User: Which sequence fits this backbone?
């Protein structure tokens, strides 16, 4: 049985999805077990600082995932940080509804928290298949439909 404790943090002025939607998306992406997850919506300055500090990249990115190193019996613990201005810009550039892009990035981040990655083609294919499945169950279109492999 999945049990989830969600901390919803909005520290930006941009449009962000409501807590109920975020809870639904996080829960849908949770593979199994218990989880404590914080989802934080930030502005460009905080997004850039976190990306620089933890990934060595001096720009704001759409989503960052931070998993806590805790004993397995404690369940999954982690943070997702979404840079709202970057997410808005990307959704507009890609011609996607903002909610669909947020749902995709939250599902993507949740999979990272659970150990999935996309460092090589095989990992990317597995992770993208899971994202498509979860998003499809949530009623969202395939986020990779326009990409060529």
Assistant:
């Amino acid at each position: 049985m999945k049990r989830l404790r969600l901390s919803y943090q909005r520290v930006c002025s941009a449009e962000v999805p409501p807590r109920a939607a975020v809870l639904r998306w996080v829960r849908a992406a949770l593979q199994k077990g218990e989880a404590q997850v914080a989802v934080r919506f930030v502005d460009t300055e905080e997004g850039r600082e976190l990306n620089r500090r933890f990934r060595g990249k001096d720009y704001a990115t759409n989503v960052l995932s931070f998993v806590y190193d805790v004993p397995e019996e404690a369940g999954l613990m982690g943070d997702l940080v979404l840079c709202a201005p970057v997410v808005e810009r990307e959704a507009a550039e890609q011609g996607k509804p903002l909610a669909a892009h947020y749902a995709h990035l939250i599902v993507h981040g949740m999979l990272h928290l659970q150990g999935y990655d996309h460092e090589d083609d095989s990992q990317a294919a597995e992770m993208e298949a899971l994202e498509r499945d979860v998003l499809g169950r949530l009623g969202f279109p395939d986020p990779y439909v326009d990409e060529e492999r």
User: Anything to note?
Assistant: The chain is about 45% helix and 20% strand. The helical segments are 19-29, 44-55, 84-94, 98-113, 121-137. The radius of gyration is 15 Å.
